[in-house]
Amino acid sequence: MKVYFTLFGIACATIACATPDTKRDIAGFSYTADERLTHYVTEFLADCGNYLSESVCKPRIDLTVTVSKLPDNILGQCSVYEGRLRAIQLDDIVLNQYNEKAVIYHELYHCVLGKPHFDDELDIMNTYEVDENTVRMYENWSEYTKKVFTRE
Ligand SMILES: [Zn+2]
Fold first, then answer.
1. Is residue 125 part of a domain?
2. Domain-embedded: residue 131
3. What pLDDT digit, counting tens, does each position of 56-77 carry?
4. How many domains are there within the chain?
5. Which of 81, 92, 96, 152 is 20 to 30 A from residue 65's alpha carbon, by CA?
6. Can you give the pLDDT at residue 132?
7. Which helix (H) or strand (E) element contains residue 64?
8. Residue 72: inside a domain, yes or no?
9. CA 9 – ligand 1 centroid, Å
10. Cα(152) to centroid of ligand 1, in Å?
11. C-beta pairs of 95-101 under 8 Å, 24+ apart in sequence
């Protein structure tokens, strides 16, 4: 199993839980997401479709997206298992925060498309997310998402 972490230097607060929401695609892609995060998955897949083929955007994986309490300094995690299972965990402290979208996109790039970290410049795949930089990315979000979708 390969695990990707997104790091950030803040402490954690409360534990949250929610009803899972399962979507299954005829081509073999399926995901089960916390209902609070489902809209990010559908938006990510739609964004992906602007740049890449359906078979690339919807690989034959079973993805779960959950909210949990992760160790300190870890905002999100993508676990790639043998076979089809991929699991994204979002730390509950990220929920409804400014960085929620950036972290879930970061983990979706890892778990759906296998994108590695890219730490050379301001990028959604930068290992370390910093407040003001995340806000800057939102100002040109489509450019930042395109940059990751189209990177070889
Ligand atoms: Zn990462």
1. yes
2. yes
3. 999 999 999 999 999 888 899 9
4. 1
5. 152
6. 74
7. strand 62-68
8. yes
9. 14
10. 17
11. 95/16, 95/36, 95/67, 98/131, 98/134, 98/135, 99/8, 99/75, 99/129, 99/131, 99/134, 101/40, 101/138
Task: Look at residue 14 in the predicted model and tell me its pLDDT.
Answer: 30
Looking at residue 27, its pLDDT comes to 60
24 Cα: distance to centroid of ligand 1 (angstroms):
25
Cα(14) to ligand 1 centroid in Å equals: 23
Q: 117 CA to middle of ligand 1, Å? A: 6
Predicted pLDDT of residue 13? 29
In terms of Cα–Cα distance, which of 127, 18, 121 is closest to 66? 18
Range of the structural domain that residue 126 is part of: 2-144
Mean pLDDT by 10 residues, the chain (152 residues): 54 38 70 96 97 95 95 90 92 92 95 92 84 86 97 92
Spacing, Cα 38 to ligand 1 middle (Å):
20
Residue 50 CA to ligand 1 center (angstroms) comes to 23
Determine the residue type at 126.
N
CA of 40 to the centre of ligand 1 (A): 17
Determine if the pTM surpasses 0.90.
Answer: no
In a domain? residue 32: yes
- Domain of 48, CATH number, reads 3.40.390
